[in-house]
Amino acid sequence: MMDWINAFPMSELDAGEWRVLELGDNDVAVFNIDGEYFAIEDTCTHDGGCLTGGRVEANIIECPRHGAQFDIKTGEALSPPAYEDLQTFAVRLNNDMVQIEYD
Ligand code: FES
Known about the structure:
Layout: E1 3-9, E2 18-23, E3 26-33, E4 36-41, E5 56-57, E6 60-62, E7 69-71, E8 88-89, E9 91-94, E10 97-102
Antiparallel strand pairs: 1-10, 2-3, 3-4, 4-8, 5-6, 6-7, 9-10
């Protein structure tokens, strides 16, 4: 059953920053992009590389291993060598808390 998980207080993640959470078997990367929060799996769909630490420009992240790019807001794979989209997770704010929807 899907549930809302308390991730961290909003005040702990400034615009342009990200944080990785371990949720079950997933590493989930949460980004603050201009005050909006988005969550994607932190695993590149090309060859399983860790995405965080890669270059981020606006809402695009580049995998540090072979350079595939993904849209952080939608999970869409934007450039080879990745062709499969990332899993995304719904995010909401509840009072001061960032919450992630997770099964
Ligand atoms: S592992 Fe990410 S582009 Fe290859």
